[in-house]
Amino acid sequence: MNPLPPVPHAWRARLADARWQRQTIGESGADVFRIEAANAEVLFLKSEPAGPFAELPGEIARLEWLARHDLPAPAVVDHALEHDRHWLLMRAVPGRDLASGPFGPAEIVSRLADALRLLHRVPIATCPFDHRLAHRIEDAHVRAVAGQVDESDFDDERAGWTAIDLFEQLRATRPANEDLVVTHGDACLPNLMATAEGFTGFIDCGRVGVADRWQDLALAARSIGFNLGEAWTAPFFERYGIAPDAERIAFYCLLDEFF
């Protein structure tokens, strides 16, 4: 049994005899723990400091929206604001993520494509979260000016750039139009779960919103190239049912540098 972190007071009895494991996969700014409760229930806890750039309140709202629309994602058990931090307690999604699970490349790209098609079919009028470029580019600028962009973590081709350099490139390459769907927002392989039977849910859902479908397709393609090799991007696009668009892939990978 691990010592109990300073969780919200109302949760302490429930988690008193749990086993805790800090999660390091992914690039979330929040602290994330996998929790095995005494009754064998598996939970995940996320926590981050309260402040103007906190993302957990938005993720909580999105998880509740996904649940109302029967879209597979972690179920919210409880949330709190305590110790000047936001806290989110969730039930685990079954299976393993597509980046680390025991799945072959063909299984991975087909499950990823099918999961995104499922999400992208949701009517945009039902989604209250607006991630159209007019908003996301403004958000990117605010983050760049506030020093919230990690300039040490840019993709290799942009090593040595400043966040303002990137923002000018972002404005210069903005697509003329958007093919709007409900997007996950960070559709890389570690953020989709599956079992041997198939796809089981989306995780890290803090960026769900109405956006160009290439927001998801670009990051999915980049993740496939990194984890499986570039040869597997073509089967992904074929399964999804669209031809690759190199310019939009480049733009949305650039936009991702700000978040």
Descriptive notes:
- Helix content is 35%, strand content 20%.
- It has two domains: 9-91, Phosphorylase Kinase, domain 1; 96-256, Alpha-Beta Complex (Aminoglycoside 3'-phosphotransferase, Chain: A, domain 2).
- The strands form three sheets. The chain has a five-stranded antiparallel β-sheet with strand order 1-2-3-5-4, covered by helices on one side. Strands 6-8-9 form a three-stranded antiparallel β-sheet, covered by helices on one side. A two-stranded antiparallel sheet has the order 7-10.
- The longest helix is centred in the middle third of the chain and has 16 residues, at 105-120.
- A hairpin with a 2-residue loop joins strand 8 (192-195) and strand 9 (198-202).
- It has eight helices and ten strands.
- By secondary structure, it is of the alpha+beta class.
- The chain is globular.
- The mean pLDDT is 94.
- Helix 3 packs antiparallel against helix 6 (213-227) and helix 3 runs parallel beside helix 7 (233-240).
Quick tags:
alpha+beta, Phosphorylase Kinase, domain 1, Aminoglycoside 3'-phosphotransferase, Chain: A, domain 2, 2 domains, 5-stranded antiparallel β-sheet, 35% helix
